[in-house]
Amino acid sequence: MHKFKQACVGILVSLLCSNVVMANDAPVAVITGSSYGLGAELVDRAVARGWRIAMVDYRPGPSATKAQEIKERGGQAAVFVADLSEPEDRKGLIKEVLKTFGRVDYLFNNAGYAYLATVEQMKLQSAHRLFEVNYWAYADLAKQVIEPMRKQGGGTIVNVSSILGTVAAPAGYGHYSASKHALHGLFQAMVKEVAPDNIKVFLAAPGGMKTQIGAHSVGPLANPEAPVPANWEDPGIVADDIFEAIKGESGVFMPGYVGRQGR
């Protein structure tokens, strides 16, 4: 049994336990890394637009609480528990969303973390796991949504990158930066591949945000107790900019203060 199917137990929403497709024309958004930070803010803005929400996280507690609140207010939400570093956990995930909601209109590839180590300090297993979450999960889920989006006439894929996917990274951030650079290489090509199917593809590259990324960082240079820098940004501002940007054409954009500096 894939881990995302285990969401039928505990406090997670009962909607996921049903194979009945919900009779509703509201758009469906899949949001990974939905429990914290930018992911949670993206959920809030999707809910405010009346969308149905598929939340994906392997720390499901906050997502489960939010899903229950959404349900109590008359909305529709489901939580899928998945460790995105595991290909078997990702396998069939979009099919499960389709069983629940009948369609996928938006995929927000947002889940990610930082493995902080110099090349000399690097452990290959740890570096590989980082790429599974920060790169391969994005590619895998994007591949899974192409056919259903094509059949329904289009859709939108949003990949959360980083300013460190566009510039040189500080010492120790090379693996994290490399995973973000890789996203730019893949998804800028994908823009052209799926344009005939009316599928839009975006790369959002924000600067530092006041999220749990420091607390969730791993590696010899990680310091989960370090305070978030004072000049880092409220992720809600970034989420607002993302929702505004995806009204336009496919491509790379820099939400938050990074983008506004260039305006």
From the alpha carbons, calculate the radius of gyration and give it in angstroms: 18 Å
Instruction: Tell me, briefly, the overall form.
Output: globular
Would you count the extended β strands for me? 7
Write the element-wise H/E pattern from the N-terminal end onward.
Answer: EHEHEHHEHEHEHEH
Computed structural class: alpha/beta
Terminal Cα separation, in Å?
A: 49 Å
**Strand line-up of the largest beta sheet:** 3-2-1-4-5-6-7
Range of helix content? 25-40%
What is the count of helical runs?
A: 8
Mean pLDDT: 90
- Taking pLDDT < 50 over at least 5 consecutive residues as the criterion, the unreliable ranges are 1-23
Fraction in beta strands: 5-15%
Q: Give a short account of the largest sheet.
A: 7 strands, parallel
